[in-house]
Design brief:
With 410 residues, the protein is of the alpha/beta class. The chain has one domain. Helix 2 packs parallel to helix 5 and helix 2 packs parallel to helix 12. The two termini are 33 Å apart.
Amino acid sequence: MILEKDYIVRRIDPNTPRRLPRRPPRRRRSRGRLPLGLLAGAAALVVLVVVLVLIFTSKGDKEETPDDLSSPPSQASVFSQPVEVDSAPESQADPGPSMPEQEAPDGEPEDFDSMVVVGDTGYACYKFSQEQAIAYIELVSYGASILPESVTLYDMIVPTSLDVLLPESYITEYEIDSSDQRKAIEEYIYPSIQNLSEEVKTVSLFDPLRMHCNEYIYLRSDRCWTQLGAYYAYVEFCKAAGLTPTDLEDFEERNYEGYLGGFYNMTASDAMGSNPDTITAYHSSADASFSYTSQDGERGENWPVIQNGDSYGSSMLNLIFMAGGQAYSEIVNHDLDDGSTCLVVADSMGSTFTPFLVDHYQYIYMIDYRTYSGSVPDLVEETGAEDVILLNSITMTSDEDLISDLSTVF
């Protein structure tokens, strides 16, 4: 949490201009002659930047961009002063009467730098970085600007389990070094994206997941959500996209015991090892097939979207969903013939979320931006996708390397 007494964050004076942040590197592509309107807009932007640089230069040396959640960048990207907030934003400490009470775990947390372990459960921490948040914000806005007007870009940021499952009082009492995720997403990143690109549809997941905080929505031994957690995110996407979500009861549920994931590998926790996760899969009744291309070029054809986990070792059970998430994947729903198509650009969260889309699209494509070597605009042109869904853990928005990876597909 961002607390004045113990969190290392420099507050920003809203009247102090900031340095222009460095954009993440983007791959150059030849896409033909630019329209005159776009050239004119680019020229106007250059003039704006030059004027602002001259203004800022005349004011002398500037401070480095602080890591501060007090206000989002303004309409003119981060070239001008930040938008002021009328009052201090509410943290998750008072989520409102409609939210269920979070259960405080017994015992003290054990710190493992990027995560903490309490009893048999690991929780991933999140460290807000204003510089990287701005890079992510601008990249999403840029992505929207280079896609056809007929394409809708959705942005879905997944919080880690720490803020969703643990009470604020517990986080504060033990001074867990993790930033306020709700504030970062809902009051900084999403408003900033909307300021820059109103056409981007930001899909809020924090409160919907928080509403189910006492359900099994995150794995204990891994940083990923369960497919139940992904289902609640799918419901929110459907609301944003004007779709009717399939009821959870209409999926065939299968359970596989004994999974131990990355947190267990990192910590060798005895408590975690004695209480492994259960992998629950929700199978659609649609006649669908799944194919993929791995990072190494290996091709898999006509697989089930979700494999039967009976033949998988316990440590491999997370791979039953879309072959664990490959560089490039495609799903065809043979029950549909309307040509509906979407593209999911995701990290490891995508393989449990994307199968829920089968009931709504004839063609579904998913890429892992960390390993895919192609281009999102090119893939949209090739497939005719009308919806592009960015789905990433919040930790990615503070990671310079991952933001750079994402930039290479735009």
